[in-house]
UniProtKB/TrEMBL annotation:
Single annotated GO MF: selenide, water dikinase activity
Pfam families documented for this protein: AIRS, AIRS_C
PurM-like N-terminal domain residues: 2-93
Protein species of origin: Glossina brevipalpis
Gene Ontology BP, a term: selenocysteine biosynthetic process
Membrane-spanning parts: none
Identification of the protein by name: PurM-like C-terminal domain-containing protein
Length: 312
């Protein structure tokens, strides 16, 4: 699933939780890119309920197409953003080397040493569970719209007939706000509200990751998605450009998305209320579906899902 969990041989009460993740820049601001990369790396650890990162090695390469002077400006800014968000996660960043590479690669290796009660393994969902999502969808299209705005290309002019530059920029700012937000609060609440399984939503979209989680369950279960919270304006962006089907089907690519958590139905409302309270409007959560017995382990989208406009 999201990361490896290995029982220590000499001290069997401890488990080594570790993940490695990296990607390529998707925003122009180097410091923001560092923040996004950090949130994306540690999210895999948070997805199994571990809330403390004991070691964090940063992976970063310097693109050869940049001059030495440009690299001297850009790389420290990426590292500063990564370190700043790492402080929010209460962990220190180790950087062993910075390699030259044709591409700029940013990511890291996150390690946590845990005892069994600190871990919620992702295969114990139950019939009747509710599914909670802790970040909105629509990140990719919101980010692309900002790129089109800067490039002034054909897609931008189509959007500009309906939206001001300010609205497009503000939608992008909401996407940034979501991407840099750590899933740590959600991981902590997973323990309080007796979560049975979870995963984080990234490149395979909500339905892709929900399907992957369903396939790993001990019981034969079906995950039914009934609601899709989407960043405000993004669904309309998609409609204008005929790019809305993946959003409507829950298959849009996400970056540094929220956690999808299966937990007892009796706790879903309280989880969302407390999450929305402790995040102080920086982020929200929603009950987006339910779990039921089935012949096949899979995730499906309800015939008429509800689309929720989300403003951060």
């Amino acid at each position: 699933m999201d990361c490896s969990v290995v029982q220590c041989q000499r001290r069997k009460e401890f488990f080594l939780v570790q993940t490695v993740d990296f990607f390529y820049p998707l925003v122009d601001d180097p410091k923001l890119m560092g923040k996004i990369a950090l949130a994306n790396v540690v999210s895999d650890v948070y997805a199994i309920g571990a809330t403390e990162i004991d070691k964090l090695n940063m992976i970063i390469s310097a693109p050869t197409e940049l001059s030495a002077e440009e690299r001297d400006i850009v790389l420290p800014m990426i590292i500063d953003g990564f370190r700043e968000s790492a402080q929010m996660a209460d962990c220190r960043v180790n950087i062993q080397n910075i390699a030259l590479n044709p591409w700029c690669i940013i990511g890291g290796i996150a390690t946590s040493l845990c005892k069994q009660p600190e871990i919620i393994l992702p295969y114990n969902a139950k019939d009747g569970d509710h599914l909670v999502l802790t970040k909105p969808l629509g990140i990719q299209l919101a980010t692309n719209a900002h790129i089109w705005l800067n490039d002034k290309n054909e897609n931008y002019y189509k959007l500009a007939e309906h939206f001001s530059d300010e609205i497009i920029s503000n939608t992008f700012k909401m996407a940034i706000k979501s991407m840099i937000f750590l899933n740590r609060d959600a991981a902590k609440l997973m323990h309080k509200y007796e979560a049975h399984a979870a995963t984080d939503i990234t490149g395979f979209g909500l339905m892709g990751h929900a399907g992957n989680l369903a396939e790993f369950q001990t019981e034969r279960l079906q995950f039914v998605i009934t609601k899709l919270p989407i960043l405000k304006n993004v669904l309309k962006f998609g409609e204008i450009l005929s790019l809305d089907m993946k959003l409507r089907n829950g298959k849009s690519v996400e970056t540094s998305g929220g956690l999808l958590i299966a937990l007892p139905a009796k706790h879903s409302k309280a989880f969302c209320q407390e999450f929305n309270l402790i995040t102080k409007g920086e982020q929200y959560s929603w009950t987006v579906g339910y779990v039921k017995h089935a012949n096949k382990r899979e995730a499906i989208l309800a015939q008429e899902p509800e689309y929720i406009d989300v403003e951060l």
